[in-house]
TrEMBL record:
Amino-acid positions noted as binding NAD(+) in the UniProt annotation, renumbered to this chain: 11-16, 36, 41, 92-96, 133-134, 167, 278-281, 348
Family from the record: Belongs to the UDP-glucose/GDP-mannose dehydrogenase family.
InterPro entries linked to this entry: 6-PGluconate_DH-like_C_sf, NAD(P)-bd_dom_sf, UDP-Glc/GDP-Man, UDP-Glc/GDP-Man_DH_C, UDP-Glc/GDP-Man_DH_C_sf, UDP-Glc/GDP-Man_DH_dimer, UDP-Glc/GDP-Man_DH_N, UDPglc_DH_euk
PANTHER family named in the record: UDP-GLUCOSE 6-DEHYDROGENASE, UDP-GLUCOSE DEHYDROGENASE/UDP-MANNAC DEHYDROGENASE
GO MF annotation list: NAD binding; UDP-glucose 6-dehydrogenase activity
Oxidoreductase is among the record's keywords: yes
Protein name from the UniProt record: UDP-glucose 6-dehydrogenase
Boundaries of every UDP-glucose/GDP-mannose dehydrogenase C-terminal domain copy: 334-455
Active site: 278 (nucleophile)
GO BP annotations listed: glycosaminoglycan biosynthetic process; UDP-glucuronate biosynthetic process
Length: 471
């Protein structure tokens, strides 16, 4: 039986930070270290001004305030914290590979591998290593091989404990998870390691909601969950295109089909396309695995979810250009929202980035307002998307001249030809749309990529209003 007195988590990101803060909050007798190689990130986690935490999540400040300095510590002392802990979580990033074998599809496991090597070198006496990062099925085998080879042949226990939190609701998701999933070896040592992790979550999660499985099932459940969730969005978005051609209303359809208990009402909101660091990356990873295991039909099936999402983002941008008389060159287009969803400052894979790129290709002048995203982040996102387009040589000065970032919404909207809503921030619904209408050029177009405004009200106000899937 293991007694866990200290936990160390490698990676102080969107997952490592909030999950460890909640574990520390709920298990005051366990010391929790969160370590990262990025000193700026750690400094922000340690900032006495809780508004400067590196990520924005409702409720996070309060949890950090309660536990930080008591039994929650953020540090760059990776080696010392690994040595100290009985249980080590790996929560580093696993982005899509941008080079070499599997480029654009496979998960890049270099940070995970580095973490495993570091653990084995520093603490070769055999610890419990927990995969918190989302990983391809059978990665635990590679981690074990590395640990045992670098760790003088000592036996390590590797568990899979994927994280299901969604950004924007991370703290409530962590406090009240639908389930916790823990996979491990089914022999005596494996079961003891599983039990040690169960005991931690059992501080606040009812035992019947903690599911334990074999390693491979746990790893593959995470990719499968994200594929199913994203598939629902692509399915409703596919129907939204048909609605626009036929006069049906996609929100009415979502309501009607969601009332079927077998389908259920959640995750059927048609949109400009899903974003976020997980869905696309994890589905591409699943597709890559299927091809690797020579299952091309299965690979094609899931790849369709990503293709439909690309189509949806493209369709939205194209509708803006088409409606504005086939060109947006020199026209002011105002973007409300840049984050990939509301209540987060995260912009990874946000639909806004791809829509902006298509409009910039047509030489639009884009004015952006987002309540939480920083200016530098928006420029980094755009530079990145240009760097990924081999057909274009990138000139940063063009970007500087075509993009304006606003700290305040009304200036962003003034004299605009069109407004595009890219994120469903609640505050957008509270704006004085009458006042906005009088200050815009006419016809005043609003492209609501999130269907958050009332179509008939907007039309009454005088807008040329276009929702998603509103025929
Ligand atoms: P992130 O980029 O926000 O954080 C990862 C952190 O790991 C970074 O701060 C990085 O500096 C650090 N890091 C990388 N290598 C390191 C090393 N060798 N030593 C110490 N620190 C190191 O990523 P994230 O969003 O927290 O995602 C982490 C993992 O969790 C990914 O596998 C992701 O797929 C998965 N996940 C993410 C979410 C989400 O909503 N973001 C949800 C569920 C699962
Ligand atoms: C997702 C999974 O939900 C979570 O379980 C996993 O751990 C990480 O990936 P996240 O990406 O943070 O979480 O947010 P999520 O709420 O799933 O939204 C993802 C994207 O889908 C967002 O761009 C969101 O706007 C979009 N979305 C979501 C829709 O377009 N329609 C919906 O009905 C739901």
């Amino acid at each position: 039986k293991h007694t866990i007195k200290t936990i160390t988590c490698i990676g102080a990101g969107y997952v490592g930070g909030p999950t460890m803060a909640v574990i520390a909050q709920k298990c005051p007798e366990i010391k929790v270290n969160v370590v990262d190689i990025n000193p700026q990130r750690i400094a922000e986690w340690n900032d006495t001004d809780l508004d400067k935490l590196p990520i924005y999540e409702p409720g996070l400040k309060e949890v950090v305030k309660e536990a930080r300095g008591r039994n929650l510590f953020f540090s760059t002392e990776v080696e010392a914290c690994i040595r100290e802990a009985e249980m080590i979580f790996i929560s580093v990033n696993t982005p899509t590979k941008t080079y070499g074998v599997g480029k654009g599809m496979a998960a890049d496991l270099k940070y995970v591998e580095l973490s495993a090597r570091q653990i084995a070198r520093i603490a070769p006496e055999g610890k419990i290593v927990v995969e918190k990062s989302t990983l391809p099925v059978r990665t635990a085998q590679s981690i074990k091989t590395i640990l045992e080879a670098e760790g003088n042949g000592n036996k390590f226990q590797v568990l899979s404990n994927p994280e299901f939190l969604a950004e924007g609701t991370a703290i409530t998701d962590l406090h009240n998870p639908d389930r916790i999933l823990i996979g491990g070896d089914q022999d005596e040592d494996g079961l003891a390691a599983i039990q040690a992790l169960v005991d931690i979550y059992a501080h606040w999660v009812p035992r019947e909601q903690i599911i334990t499985t074999r390693l491979w099932s746990s790893e593959l459940s995470k990719l499968t969950a994200n594929a199913f969730l994203a598939q629902r969005i692509s399915s409703i978005n596919a129907i939204s295109a048909l609605c626009e051609r036929t006069g049906a209303d996609v929100d009415e359809i979502a309501h009607a089909i969601g009332a079927d208990t077998r389908i259920g009402p959640k995750f059927l909101r048609s949109s400009v396309g899903f974003g976020g660091s997980c869905f696309q990356k994890d589905i591409l990873n699943l597709v890559y695995l299927c091809r690797h295991f020579n299952l091309p039909e299965v690979a094609d099936y899931w790849e369709g979810v990503v293709k439909m999402n690309d189509y949806q983002k493209h369709r939205f941008a194209k509708q803006i250009i088409d409606s504005l008389f086939n060109t947006v060159s020199g026209k002011k287009i105002a973007f409300l929202g840049w984050a990939f969803k509301k209540d987060t400052n995260d912009t990874r894979e946000s639909a806004a980035i791809y829509v902006a790129k298509e409009l910039l290709d047509d030489l639009a002048e884009i004015h952006i307002y987002d309540p939480k995203v920083k200016k530098e982040q928006i420029f980094r996102d755009l530079e990145y998307v240009y760097s990924q387009d081999p057909t274009q040589s990138f000139d940063p000065s063009v970007l500087q001249s075509l993009i304006t970032i606003h700290e305040e919404p009304y200036q962003a909207l003034e004299n605009a030809h069109a407004i595009a809503i890219l994120t469903e921030w609640d505050e957008f619904k509270t704006y004085d749309w009458q006042k906005i209408h009088t200050r815009m050029l006419k016809p005043a177009f609003v492209f609501d990529g999130r269907n958050i405004l009332d179509a008939s009200e907007m039309k009454k106000t005088g807008f040329e209003y276009r929702g998603i899937g509103k025929g």
